Fold each of these.
Amino acid sequence: MTEILRDILTKYDKDQYAKNTGSQMHKKMRFVNMLNADDEVVQQIESRPDLQIFFTENARCEVPIATTENGKLLSRRIDRMVVDDDNKIVYILDYKTDVDKDAFHANYVAQVQEYITIIKKIYPKYKVYGYILWLHDWTLEKL
């Protein structure tokens, strides 16, 4: 019984750590374009040309989107989105803090694909590209 309880508490601790880490990183990422941006985050972005498009003046942060599916409202929030009207392209970026990229990878891909589907309804004449930014190692994954 003690071993089962220890396993439950260990899982709970890991889950809480993951939630707290994710919340903290999302807060840091939200303020990247502001004066009080986290120095480490700014340094990572400045050193990565492939990330810079997501952190320009044109980038939107925590973008609410919604559609209806089978008669039900579907509401989501995109971590970062850039609309390039000149080239008719929308870029979507979702942050993930997981260290083990494979653990929920299929779920995360499905999540970004859902965003892409919704954005294509909003911007029907635009190409839409989705990305995952793995914040533990700053890897950018194009879907």
Amino acid sequence: MTSLPPTFIIGTGRCGSTLVHEIVARHPAVGFVTNLDDLGIRQGNAQQLTLWRRLPAALSDKGRARLAPSEGYRVISRDVSPALVDPVADPTAADLSPWLNERLHAFVDDRMRHLDAAEVFVHKFTGWPRARLLDAAFPGANFVHVVRDGRAVANSWLQMDWWRGHLGPTGWHFGPLPAALDDAWAHVGRTQPTLAGVAWRLLTDTYEECAAELGRRWLTVRYEDLVADPKAQITRVLDHIGLPWNDAFESGLGRYAFSPARLTAYRDELSPAQITDIEKVIGDNLERYGYDRVSTPGDQ
């Protein structure tokens, strides 16, 4: 029976939040949405979770037939509202109509009802944090923000087939740019790589606003720190949620490999000029999270 407030794992996308979500979902006290649920296959939901926890991590890789935890955007759009799936701006408490609040609670309750061992519902969202709306719907909810170097995120976005940044702010995922960010993008020539960096800054600024409002219920985990010391960072996450470390979870964590191979791939896959331009618009944000700039002061 659920005894802990929900936890939402959130991040910009391409930031490592899927890895954190999957690791946390290995805990036997966690309930979550699966990709089969997202496809409308609800029969035996408890069995889906049990089966997934027994599978090797490699069988959850994206791009193949799989069973895995899911953001559940299809089912959320059907059962709750598409306004929570791809909002043009970050939803806040002012967007939480009574009918939306009722649907959100029904969505969670329906998925936790038959999970006898589950103590907490854990879900992942990427893009806008949605934290202020979710906090209004679920007072006391906890949030785990997974952040990754914005240059690496921008580089990864540019290579994704779902990335719509090539359409510009009139056609991409995040709505119109604030005037200051539009000016910053214009200053470096409105290039595609820099726009991806601008998107990371736009989202990161919003995450920081949410963190200031939510205080102790907000935990930030750097992806790079997770790769360097998985046990230490996941221990922080479990403590934040209110879950104990146990043998079953230890076994689940042991199925994952953590490689630093892609941490600085952007240095080879973006040109020095592109990196410099990105740093011109996101450098202060990078430094707040402890990331060093690649370009020299003279380049800026």
